[in-house]
Amino acid sequence: MEKSSHDIEFISQGFSLKGILHLPKVKNPPLVVGSHGLEGSKESAKQQVMSKLLVQNNIAFFRFDHRGCGESQGDFIKETSLEKRTIDFITATKHILDLGKTSRDLAVFGSSMGGATCLNAWDTLLQMDINLCGAVLCSAPVKSRTIENIPMDANETRPALPLSFFKHNLLFNIQDKVHKFFNVLIFHGDADQVVPVSNAYDIYSLAKEPKRLIIHKNGDHQMTDKKDQNQFETEAVAWFLSCFGHGHQMPS
Question: Does this model's pTM top 0.85?
Fold first, then answer.
């Protein structure tokens, strides 16, 4: 069975979303599904790194564009919210599992808003017919009001964002969801000027064991320090291998 990647298209609430499923050479590998940040895509650096490293370690990885991002359908300003991204994530997970190319051992990976998406989806995933094994989160917010630098200015992919976009679409506090989280590895920079590191301490304090918190000294939101990137790559892969290797079930 050759190592391969497959272009995937699926429908989430009427929107056509696009992604790539990376499969290792083994039969029925465990699966990690990734969720990118607010203005990211499946081509974001961490999503691409995970697609390579996990496959090398016999773990399948699915990365996709949420609605309004990358190659997927939808208007970014009208269709971006934590709830809608959570629906996209759950729909993506169901679609990939139903293809029958992986086992039903699942872990999740999220960066920034993608981490919040994983947290928000967790309870629904627990109720699905799968073995939910763990998570890796990077710079994830649990309380949107802590976010300090709001990206309102226009850029090459979208017009300027009105303040109403954040008030109507991106107000959330999902602390009450974290107590069901388990087997989570958390990365955060203590100099993050977008999502304050207090969010990482909140997740760590509320989540169930096993859990681990890695704070990058002087680390920023994008994890631009090469040393931090190297640690992330090594520790994230080891964590996912541990999750699947020991077959952790949901704690009682």
Answer: yes
